[in-house]
Design brief:
single chain, alpha/beta, Rossmann fold, seven-stranded mixed beta sheet, 12 helices, about 35% helix, disordered N terminus, binds adenosine-5'-triphosphate, binds magnesium ion
Length: about 325
Amino acid sequence: MTQTTTSDASPTAGSGSRPSTGAPAPLLGGPGAGDGPDQPRTDVVGRPLPDFPEPPPLASHGPARIVAMCNQKGGVGKTTTTINLGAALAEYGRRVLLVDFDPQGAASVGVGVNPHDLDMSVYNLLMERDVTLDDVLQSTAIDGLDVLPANIDLSAAEVQLVGEVARESVLARALRPALDDYDVILVDCQPSLGLLTVNALTAAHGVLIPLECEFFALRGVALLVETIEKVRDRLNPELEVDGILPTMYDSRTLHSREVVARVHEAFGDTLLHTVIGRTVKFPDASVAAEPITNYAPAHAGAAAYRQLARELVARGDSA
Ligand SMILES: Nc1ncnc2c1ncn2[C@@H]1O[C@H](COP(=O)(O)OP(=O)(O)OP(=O)(O)O)[C@@H](O)[C@H]1O
Ligand SMILES: [Mg+2]
């Protein structure tokens, strides 16, 4: 079997912080990959792998596409994807706003914001009429990447919103003033399909579904898709599924490949070409409170999120 997984010992994406076009081949060890220079490259399910070009620079910014990172299963890579996709898009010159929409505050921590130390959080923006985006917004160490941070206060919103008028559209309304200033707004959802997540889906143009490559990954996806369809029917007719992103993929195991093949059978080309390999560099980067694109810019994990950014831009699912 070809060894094609992400290895921490062998970063592969060159040494620059922004390699030009070209996929990180070691993360994409599909059947045809590595068969020789004349073979077309394929993704992990054997589809031809397009060459996603580096996105052209933007002359002006906005209107933003809002993308909800959603899966009610815990620990599948929602927050990791929000942070690292956001940072990769910012590297490509996009203006990106991360919305931490989980009371655990992990996305805030991941970009260097201490959630215990906030005067104002996304909770205040949702619940208090006189609080504006600018009151809550924080810049990060990454150029072009801002965050609306959250902390445990947000857990009260789930209950308090129930009594609000148009309770499902509170986030959509709160984000409206940001649309012209950003190219992409990424909403990091909590692992539930409750009212906060419904707010994220109501605000969003697209949903990205990170899916851990393990046996029970597909359980619950039907329920998620049903929820997305309900929100589309009743609240947000424009809502699209932008893609399913396999995470924690280990090409050394038959198992990872089987999971992705099942996803492809069930969801066709909603399955993205990009696959995120399993590597300890992601938890390491979280501990350092940095995106992997900064923490280990040459690592295959950083290259994978850059490829995801390019793939989504090429599909028209990000600015
Ligand atoms: N590709 C990966 N390889 C290895 N570890 C990963 C990978 N992606 C994420 N992780 C780690 O797995 C854990 C869960 O990831 P993450 O927090 O992104 O998931 P989540 O879906 O946001 O979780 P929750 O549902 O609790 O919000 C974290 O410790 C993270 O560092
Ligand atoms: Mg999370």
